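User: Predict GED domain-containing protein's structure from this.
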Amino acid sequence: MIDYTLLSIKEFIRSYIETYQACLNTTNPDFILELVKSSDVIQDAFISTHVTNKKGLTNDEFTRAEEERTKQLFKQILSGLNDLDKTMESSKQVKMHKNLTRCYFEFVRKNVRDFVPKRIIFKMVNHVLNSIDQHMHKLVFTPYVVNRSIDQVLVEEEHIVDDRHRVERLLVAVNKALKNMADIQVH
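Assistant:
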């Protein structure tokens, strides 16, 4: 059963990563943060885009204007700029796409690194709990509750009864010895 659980975890993780590969979400705020952190030029452009005079604007107008400036900045970043007089290897667009790819990879790697241990723990804990539940149902619930033999649960096995009596006799002997020692110290 554990082999099946491990296999299902591996398949789920593979599917999780394939999902990220199939659909790139470049509007995710965490990815955008990773992108902004990746380059001083992008950081400067992002800051200058967001540092504006709020005078005369309502909060809604300011928010809409800020969202529009952010969209324009990222359209510019994502479209890149081709320098036709330079080779394709050194063009700004190629450099930008390399940076975007690296940032997206880092973004996905962080998500997978965070998610995988959670998924493993979730699957393993559920597996253990299900196993315990099945075991308890098989060994306790069915024989004692369903078959109405709950009295059997309360019956001590003979070796347990013998051990309990032996320990009780030892306890009585120890208490007598302690009482005798206390009496000797008083006299």
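Residues 81-85 have pLDDT under 50 and may be disordered.
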